[in-house]
Write a structure and sequence with these properties.
Number of helices: 16
CATH class of the domain at 136-349: Alpha Beta
Order of helices and strands: HHHHHHEHHEHEHHEEHHEHEHEH
Distance between the termini: 109 Å
Structural class: alpha/beta
CATH architecture of the domain at 136-349: 3-Layer(aba) Sandwich
CATH topology of the domain at 136-349: Rossmann fold
CATH superfamily of the domain at 136-349: P-loop containing nucleotide triphosphate hydrolases
Number of strands: 8
Helix content: 25-40%
């Protein structure tokens, strides 16, 4: 262990330790002598500070002309207040033109009064819902689907939300079967006008499956026909059910759907009719481009997948193409197994 040694500052030591040591200064004095703090002095303050107003720039809210020359004559407009009031509102200018067209209200168009008979034999031949028959398991299944569709339309309360696109990734997955059955289920509502639109322009089949005679349709209106689109609508003998055929065939269906005229025609069919729902049967999403174009005009899309048939990668690709619609739901078709064991329709056929 080292022996402690008393350390004496040099200035405090003397040659003769027997003589009286000179008086040691305070701690602050010794620190000042050691580090030269005594040379630090406060800054000199002038007797009169300059005027702060002369050094500060004029406020940004005041124009330079008024700030620098307050006494100079400045031209004043005769009516400064009415100018902002007459300018258009910022909210209206910020709304896209297409959205403005969707929100404009007006009288609802009326469909022709002539009635066309739907063949019940054709409905049964294609295993579709027969509105005159007893409640079936198929009808009960589509009752569940339509409740979801109506709930979304009522929650949104917009014209696009009342337009429903039914499609599938590939052919043979039952998208037309689901389109017609959903339309028949919706038409059974008391306060609904259901317009079933055949938008599969390359292979239209709605009119044939219902036993109707197809005439002019949606594609004729998109191509610039002078005939109003509502005059091509067929009123059926099934209450609340109307059908709009596909119309003439053309190689420009996708281009016509992408035009501004599509917004005008679809807006005309739903504007001013809050109780009117449109169901579109479109081509398969991965087989033709019209489905992707129609997805931009609807608020709901039902993507039909066939059980044990439609691959997952096809569904993912179809969802990407239909991204123009923000509400896409999967509709499983041809499912023969229910984990819960439900069997809709049997209850109505049982005796008391």
């Amino acid at each position: 262990m080292n022996k402690p040694v008393k350390i004496v500052p040099p200035e405090a030591a003397t040659e003769d330790t027997g003589k009286n040591e000179r008086k040691r200064g305070s701690l602050l004095e010794r620190a000042g002598n050691a580090f030269g703090f005594d040379r630090l002095t406060p800054a000199k303050v002038p007797p009169r500070l300059p005027d702060a107003k002369k050094r500060m720039p004029p406020p940004k809210s005041v124009t330079p002309a008024v700030a620098s020359e307050p006494t100079a004559p400045v031209p004043v407009p005769a009516e400064p207040a009415p100018a902002p009031a007459s300018a258009p509102a910022p909210q209206a200018a910020a709304v896209p033109v297409r959205q403005q067209r969707e929100e404009v209200s007006g009288p609802a168009v009326r469909f022709p009064a002539k009635t066309h008979t739907v063949s019940r034999e054709q409905l049964r031949a294609h295993a579709l819902i027969d509105p005159d028959a007893a409640t079936s398991a198929l009808f009960e299944e589509f009752r569940i689907v339509k409740r979801q569709v109506l709930a979304t339309a009522q929650a949104e309360g917009t014209a696009p939300s009342r337009r429903v696109l039914v499609t599938s990734p590939h052919m043979g997955e039952g998208k037309t079967f689901c389109s017609i059955n959903l339309a028949l289920a919706l038409a059974a509502e008391q306060d609904i006008e259901l317009l079933l639109v055949d938008a599969d322009f390359a292979k239209p089949s709605i009119a044939r499956r219902l036993g109707l005679e197809a005439g002019t349709g949606l594609m004729d209106a998109l191509a610039g026909s002078s005939k109003p689109v509502e005059e091509s609508v067929l009123r059926t003998d099934i209450a609340n059910l109307f059908v709009l055929p596909a119309g003439q065939r053309t190689q420009r269906d996708a281009e016509l759907l992408a035009s501004e005229r599509t917004f005008e025609i679809l807006g005309r069919l739903t504007r001013g009719a809050p109780n009117r729902v449109l169901v579109f049967d479109s081509p398969p999403a991965l087989a033709a481009s019209p489905a992707a174009e129609l997805a931009k005009h609807v608020g709901q899309t039902l993507l039909v997948a066939r059980a044990d048939n439609t691959p997952r990668v096809a569904l993912e690709d179809a969802v990407d193409l239909l991204a123009g619609c923000r509400d896409i739901r999967l509709l499983l078709n041809d499912a023969t197994f229910s984990p819960s064991g439900r069997s809709f329709g049997r209850y109505y056929g049982m005796g008391e």
